[in-house]
């Protein structure tokens, strides 16, 4: 036994050494170092890692050309890091805890502040704020919000500052008439026939952050007055990670989602799947006064609806580091939706004495389905050691939708008008291709950066509408050739851009110019052809930032944007679902240009921030919905015709107040208020010469409670003016409480939506010969229960650390 004892010791030592070595491989601290002003990356910043309570660094490293760093091979323990760079105040990050179960710490974007007079250290703790502010917009970190857990992109957007989501799920930036929604920097409106369908099923657990860009940089398309960019999680944690969740509400809605990622030595795979079922109910009341020289009469209409929507979303991504200087990223998205609807409305015809002359009853039913498929390929090559990068991107998308609806109309008393039965079959297809080539390079000792790029966008739309009326004598459906039509749309956009980013001693200046050549053609099966003459547009862009005294920031921006009329607004096909309220597009629309300027001032304290913003924009040829009311020949009825038009000029002045207060590490409050003065002037119709105030606001509150519980709430309100009236909404609210179990892997959440009452909306609309009031309410008041489980499997081997050296 004594002779074998040394061997036993030897094997024991080998086991202990192997175990400790394996443990040492698990810990990772990563992040990105950027300027506090402008958000530009800082290459070659020094990263020093300390064990808590020690004064000598354990490891030092440096950020790469894009400002990223990753410190690997760390044992479990408490750490702090110090970030240093010439001309910036050192930043210390405390409270980084690495354990066997929580070994991967991604600190996100770490901001260094520039100070000319004094370079004192700035110390923070590891707690990523839900909302981050900048001169060019706002960033909402989805992972830091309770309300975002287990929901969808539509639900999350309702709580993002400066974003407003209407009852149909369409998101816009406050004060911006035309907003585009991007996913990972690419336009999603090219990826789906209905953006709301995509956002309504896109799981929030797959989203990293949402960027609200009020002054998009030159590399983005010139379309829209602002961009909402949804950044998806890439899942680049070591090993196998993910989550699975289910949720259900008392209204009958529910969803299930899962996402997972795996990272190997030089590649990463991530994917997600989601299913959503939703039941919508609501009712509306519309009252229209019709004024004509010889007569006045009224329409009093009551309606109700019930919709059922089912949607599924699948995403898959692959990231491959081909060599240390080459990267290939592939991603694909598949969306599938089905819906069914039933609605009724009763229209009471009232004469000048408000006596009912007749009643029209309409029963509508419909079934729809849509599918969207998108594939992206992005290749990045580091062209030189100074940090130059060449990027190529290619996106292909195809989507289609089929909508079949039936309208059964009867009148009372019988004999006044004959009953009708109509079917509308709308078949829509889209195909698109997007290509971009970008080059960026740091210059002047990596202080500044230049960017150059080319882009091409192609889009084809095919909208085939078949309308059939039932012949009660032959008991057959007969094609209505007057309303049936096929609309074909082709769009080609060629673009080039150049931008320059300057930074020095607290100053940050970004300037760029983008040029786009647009070629559009569309025609109808009736033989009408529209060839729009190709037009060239130039979009200058300027952003100025100045950070001083460690706590103040001044920003100024200027940009030119365009709102191009597209197929939904151009298509002259008539929608006569309600024969007294028809709608159609306008093929004679012209693009609208907007000049917008922002001034912002930020004050930051240790526990608070306040960012007032003054925004002014002037738009020529504003494209908005425009309603007219005309007498129907040979009858005593009036028909409302709703179309799009270049209604005139809109000058808008907005004051936006955004604030955040965090009295402790466990309590946080944020709020924003927008007051917007809009003035419309029009040569189209004197009734459009109007001005008015729009008011929007929101307030959010979150609190970490004992026993691994937390609470969060959000209130929103909007009251908006438009060219023909006002859209007044109600207060919407969300309250959420969460409890964690199983070492924070399992969480249970309860959410109360619109606890003060169902969401309602009031619309006031008027013209030269009519006044319209519409009140609607929807079943948004809901109790939702959700359960979410997160899983992690540590990889046995992790890539060796890069550019690290022990001290």
Could you describe the 3D structure shown?
This protein is mostly beta strands and 807 residues long. The chain folds into 2 domains: 22-126, Sandwich (Immunoglobulin-like), CATH 2.60.40; 239-806, Maltoporin, Chain A, CATH 2.40.170. It has 4 helices and 45 strands. The strands form 5 sheets. It has a 28-stranded mixed β-sheet that branches. A 6-stranded mixed β-sheet has the order 8-6-5-2-3-45, with no helix packed on it. Strands 9-10-15-16-13-14 form a 6-stranded mixed β-sheet, with no helix packed on it. Strand 28 (507-524) and strand 29 form a beta hairpin. The longest helix is centred in the N-terminal third of the chain and has 20 residues, at 5-24. 38% of the residues are buried. Residues 1-24, 115-120 and 794-807 have low confidence and may be disordered. This is TonB-dependent receptor. InterPro entries: Beta-barrel_TonB_sf, CarboxyPept-like_regulatory, OMP_b-brl_3, Plug_dom_sf. It is found in: Cell outer membrane. Keywords: Cell outer membrane, Membrane, Receptor, Signal. Residues 1-23 form the signal peptide.
CATH fold type of the largest domain: Maltoporin, Chain A
Terminal residue distance: 44 Å
Report mean pLDDT, rounded to a whole number. Answer: 82
The CATH class assignment of the largest domain is Mainly Beta
Biggest sheet, in brief? 28 strands, mixed
Beta fraction: over 45%
Keywords: Cell outer membrane, Membrane, Receptor, Signal
Subcellular location: Cell outer membrane
Main location: membrane
Pfam families: CarbopepD_reg_2, OMP_b-brl_3
